[in-house]
Fold each of these.
Amino acid sequence: SESAKTLNIMKKNLFFLVVIIFVTNTAFLQTFPDSLQEKLSEKTPKEQIFYLLNISNNSIKSNPTASLTLAKLANSIAVSNNDKNNEVKSAFIISKSARQVGKASEAIDYINKTITILSSANQKQYLAQAYNELGLLYKETAKYNDASVAFSKSISLFQELGDKKAEYLVLGNLGDVYNKSRQFKQAIETFQKAKKLAEELADKKEIAISLNLLGVAYANYGNTAEAINQLKAAKDIATSIGNTVLANQIQANLDNLQQNLAVKGKSEFEKEQEKEKEQYISSLQSEYQNIKQLAAKSFEEIEKLKIEDQVKELRIKAIQGEFEKQKLENEMKEQNLK
């Protein structure tokens, strides 16, 4: 009847602004039933949010675009109703969905607002998760400095909470950021910390994973020998626990490392080693210049001196000998290059 239609229209008017956002989304219409509008029109704002977030959360992997749309809708309802709890929940789903569809930049503002809410409420567990999520968003948008800051804050909070498993996982994220930003020494230090935590957790799979990541970091840094050691150790553990997939991945890293050796130029590690040697020789030369006027005594003469004088004379002799050795090595290297 006409009166029934009018009543139904009036009933739906309250939710018109909410519904209009997603009825125009083609992906949504193709994925979910038309009856969703009616279902939402019969619910309170809190029930609407719960319903939308349930669908959104279950669709993150299967249909991340629709998941993102629904989570944003739920977030807007939560904000309108000053529902901080659901504003936080929807923001986490927005972040996960946005990363799935390559729209991480859209979620950064949502997570920053979530961090403000959680900081005010002193919710450290969720705050640590939020900083990790923020780090993942920054990593996806190649803002590596911002990502490392966010991950570091997350790690500090998980350390404070004594949550070693979560700390281990975020250390992996931080190490990945250092690798991507070519800060290989920091990546090595980070994965070493992750390995230590995996050992404390007695989780062999995670130990193998952290050793694998550590090996890759050493390879990127240019310390091939250490990279091979770490990768072989990782493979041994993966094989011992019967994780064939992981063992094969590690073997692939070993194979790639061997293939790259023939064509690779000087690595950062090798350059640093050369620089350290140059600095050592320069320092040695400076000391040598200070004592070269002093005639080094024979060992027989040194034995007759007091202990403190013996130490002094032996040092003079050692410096002179070491400098002459380094000088000879450099001359031979230059001769071979000609």
Note: Confidence is low (pLDDT under 50) at residues 2-32.
Amino acid sequence: AGCTAIDSAFIDVIPLPEAPLLISPADGESLVIAPIELTWEMAAEADEYYIIVDGDTIATTSLTNATFYDAVCGGSYSWFVIAHNECGDSASDVWDFYIRPCSGPSANIIEPMPDTWSSCIDQNIVIAISDSDGIEPATVRLTVNTATYIVDGTTLTWDGTYLRFIPPIDWTNGQLVTVCLDSVDDIYGNPLEGSLCWDFYIDLSPPHFWGEFPTGTVPTDIDYIGFHLEDTLSGLDTNSISAVISIGIDEYTYTVGYGIEFLGDSFWIDVSGIGFMPGDTVEVCVSATDTTDYCADNELDTCWTFFIEGCDLVAYACEDAYTV
């Protein structure tokens, strides 16, 4: 009789790995600069994973996380994970993440500019602050003459573009004001680099006037009228100086270069051609300003009067020629 042989064959079928499900960074997430931890869920049937960032394989691992070390400030990246086994590969979705800019806010002085003079008794301090991500107002610290202020909506305000300091008390004449923007961060904590500091000055007084001549009663043959002017704060604007000499209804107007001469703080006018008459009353009015940079210049407007002596009255007494 014949014999029958029976055998069995077993085939182990290995499926492709499942596609990994990404966890973090979330798609479209914005991150602070640091080594970026990439994570995903374990894929069934996967032996290992290839991690792809911007087209480059940055790691091969059997774990479900990897670290990306090459992120740069302001960079944007796409990433995905390939699950692999001996039968083939399955890829995850492609996600993107972004690295926030690393630079902090920038600040620029609007007013008053460094080393300028203001005649505003309530001169405001205005600084423009910009940052592409926005600033965090709670981080602002502004020091004005040793006092430090925070944004309170009253003394120190922020409108999204300008930081404005409104002095709680009026400035004083001749005051030096020192300002420092000590700190301000953007919404991600990036700080202002360094600090922004400067000085400005307050001038609330007009030029100083003294030493006018002549005064009192003088003879008719005067040749010069003069006075002294100076401004020790913002400085005297010589182009603003004018003098008006009034004699009755007649007026004579002089300016620097047109009748007024000067040397240092001494100013004079040659009046030899006027021809004063005995008994004249002469009024001289002088105006001048200083040279402030903010608000109107402080203006001097002052007058004095002198007199031209009159004629001597001569009387003669004669003896009566008629006798009785």
Note: The chain has a mean pLDDT of 93.
Amino acid sequence: FSLEAKDLPALLAWYGRAPKGMEAMQTARATAQLSATSRLLRFEQLAFSINDTSATGILDLALKPDSLPKFTGTLAFADFDVGDINNLLPLMNQFVTSRGNARPAPVAAFDLRLSVGQVRLGEVRLSDVAASMLISQDHALIDIGDSEFEDGRLSGRLSSGPKGIGQDMRVQLSIRDIDLARLGERLRLSELWPSGPGSLDISLASERPFIETRRPDLSGKATITANKGHLDRLAASSLRALAGLAVPFPLTAAGDSDFDFDRLDARLDVDKGAVTVDSAVLENDTDRLSLSGTFSESDEVAIRAHLSPLSAGAGTDVSMMIEGPDASPMVTAIGNGP
């Protein structure tokens, strides 16, 4: 069979089934070889597109008594922009029902294997994505088995939360051997973000559905580990040289020398978008730099730093507070001693 709509909103309006918000979905096309048995429809050599999003693959639609219709199969996308989900929401909502006080529930189940050449989410890019999608009566999840991300690998799970499908969400990510500096540049992270190859484990939750979630909606935990990297402007020699200053000064006054580390271990808490650094320890052969404090949801920094020697003759202990706007923090107190 072959179907094509060059003005999808107009076609649905003529048919009397035009959900509000469909204006952004302009074109749609689907072709497949269709075969059927008593309770199974098979779509072989399937190719479909909605606007600029397209996929190929094979799908089976099982129609069994006393159970949801169920799609199973494999789909391959060359490119997928997560932002386009906003355009698809009116159509997706047609596959979800909600009656009275009951949880929203899908009108069909899905068990799909997915491959995507590139996934875009704002400034974030994933390549060579291998994933699966499972939607049942009361739960939905997407498992990312593997993907390429910032010269490293990313796997994880995005799932519905306890409120049900389309109500809240949970996300767990395991990120290995990525370029931390490149990630910091893409996400415009703090000047206190490290550089070098590193790994992250992230577990976050939101009381809103994925597509509506923003930073203030997120809470959870994260860890960062790295070897052989650096932290901009916080060279031990510069901090000790400035230890005698009695007046606040901008962090940039520490110069361009960095704190080179052989090990980084950080533990973070996220509460409604605000990030608390429970502990961050950076070490090299001669010094240890310990950081703790907060990055507020409004991008204000309040970080306590302590520099301590690990070898004889490395220097004295230095403590300081780094406070102010994330883009231009000030060192408001500095001195010798813990």
Note: Residues 172 and 203 are 4 Å apart (CA to CA).
